[in-house]
Amino acid sequence: MAKCADQSVNDIEDLLGNGDVVRSAPKRHILPKKIAPRNAKTEQKERSADSSSNIPGVQSIYVKTWGCSHNNSDGEYMSGQLAAFGYHITEDAMNADLWLLNSCTVKGPSEDTFRNAISSGQSLNKHLVIAGCVPQGHRDDTSLRSISAVGVQQIDRVVEVVEETLKGHTVRLFGNKKNEEGQKSGGAALDLPKIRKNPLIEILAVNTGCLNQCTYCKTKHARGELGSYPPAQLVARAKQAFTEGVREIWLTSEDLGAYGHDIDVRIPDLLHQLVEVIPEGAMMRLGMTNPPYILEHMEEVAKILNHPRVYSFLHIPVQAGSDAVLEAMRREYTRADFEQLVDYLKEKVPRLTVATDLICGFPTETEEDFKESIALVEKYKFPSLFINQFYPRPGTPAARMKRIPTQEVKNRSRAVSQVFQSYRTYDHQVGERQWVLVTEIAHDKKHLVAHNKSYDQVLLEDVPGLMGKYVQVDITSAGKHYLMAKLVPGSLENAVRLPEPLPQGAVSGAPVQPPRKAQAFSHGWNRRYIPSVLLVLFLAIVIRSCQLIQVPHT
What we know:
Helix content is about 35%, strand content about 15%. It is of the alpha/beta class. The protein has a 6-stranded parallel β-sheet with strand order 2-1-3-4-5-6, with helices on both faces. Strands 15-16-17-19-18 form a 5-stranded mixed beta barrel. Strands 7-10-11 form a 3-stranded parallel β-sheet, sandwiched between helices. Strand 18 and strand 19 (about 485) form a beta hairpin. Helix 8 (about 230-245) runs parallel beside helix 9 and helix 14 (about 365-380) runs parallel beside helix 15.
């Protein structure tokens, strides 16, 4: 198993400015493999492999992303840039030349899985580049410092990092992007190439970071303070997505309601501009928002949620039903604030779906506090409830608090799950005729997944030409988490015709690439070898000229 280099590699922003790259020595600690008996065929194959591996942009890259939709958007952008440069993005981890591991730090288990992937890659002698919130939030972690890393606001430079890593160097790029006023921006440019995991869905990050200081949250250490993109850039990206056949836009961020506080723009201003560019037959889904900031705009947000091309859906994480626990978490709102927001929106937005989160076993949570959380679930009967056990994240204030016994935390999580499973929220829709947008293939590979106006999951039999269409269906039955439906006759034939989506794996925003061998030539020779070739030709001409004018001996 290959071990990490012992030498220390400084973060690039600590050493150089102006975009310079820091290189470490090649990894001499990796031992050569045993040499098998050779024959002419083997030698020819190896020569072919060696020649291509020396040309930048022809190797295969395995990209793995964990975590939230924002992190998935970052992964799509990194994949797109690498593919546009000429690298082959592959799902075959074993045969890939390099692994790009895009991490999540919200929970301990997700970070553990990421670190296990690093160990697996090292044992296979894979080139590694890490990205996401773990390396950004753990910049001083000695176990990661000899592995190349891309910071969450440096994803536009992933090609540089990959190139240097394939040469055997270690490169670490961190730091924040700045806007024209010198403030932190939303991040890398939105018009970069990307490969959408689902060609029908554009994940649009409107801002990064947040305004809160929650005591349990590690994401703040990685994403930092609030940085918002200007509305014009977001609208332009949405327009481009729709021209490329996207049917659904997901607005994502660490806190949608906080958008624009740093650039003197309000979230309703952005939303009103975005709905103007959504074509008929397409939809927009609002992202997660914390109560404090969305409370400022309840009336206007309700109007947006009622728009025919916006899902009547909002993810508002409450985290606890007790004011005492909310205060210990520094959530900056009370249970009454949460209820005021939910009650108002449900009154003004018919069939609004409110999704929420609960943390079970926060260190200060008493039995009485926990009962208040249970009562909140029983009152609202949330159709979508994310139940999380408390995990202490290193470096957070909550990690220094005395923990509740693990078994008690599990018992509380189980109790909330039992309440959640005790009610059903979809049965009343059986027999209704609804409009749905079809965007995915179900896990059973037999059905297609659609969503109605409330963003309820609707399953349909797979019919040719149905994917990506906005159609009418009849609801035939309901489960705990889904609705079953049948397509209304004639609905598919009368569906709105929109631009065809990009093929799976195609690069958004990039010109059509030349064939593979031409890519290798253009990226390799144009950038590296043409100067050398020209020098050789020049010397040959000089030598030949000297021979022609040489005076013969008499």
